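Changelog-linked ticket: shikimate-3-phosphate example.
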Amino acid sequence: MIYTLTGFMGCGKSSIGREVAKLAADFIDLDDAIVEREGRSIPEIFAAGGEAGFRKIERETLAVLLEEAGTGRHLLLSLGGGTLTDEYSRALVRGHCRCIYLRASIDTLVENLSEGGETDSRPMLAGAMSGAADAEARKQALRERIAAMMAVRGPIYEAAADHIIDIDGRSYDDIAREIMDYFSIPCQGKSQE
Ligand code: S3P
């Protein structure tokens, strides 16, 4: 069975996926797979083809990964924050995967994304803060951008989810264990620290 993690940028999809991978399932990060396949960074892909160009590459990579994964093992796949905004990718996930939405409040997302470099590597956010004069103005611009995007994406994440985990204030390890419990993924003799 293939399980996917979805949620807004900065909610911890990749970090939580790696926690689950320590305990049980194999783990693939879709963004990492895209970068490897393309031999370019995500900002470079956006610079060359915009969001539409990135979504095309994203959906092609997702299709290949799902085809290669088969059905015989537990695979956890963390999606990008915008993967499910694409109708074709959404249909792929619906047809092949169970989906967990890691739901975070806007406050948590602002905190997670305000730390050094988190927005520079994310073209969907980087431009929103370009005119801001200081750190406080940058944070406010980031908050407004996240709120506007979440108004569109929140219902998409919720509609796609088989299970929703509210992650505010919880450790990655704790969330990883809830994911495994929910899907009844047995530990595979890996570290259970
Ligand atoms: C995007 C999220 C990013 C990455 C790309 C676009 C988005 O992934 O796929 O920059 O549209 O939300 P993360 O959610 O892992 O940051």
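Closing comment: Example verified and attached. Residues 26 and 153 are 27 Å apart (CA to CA). The chain has a mean pLDDT of 91.
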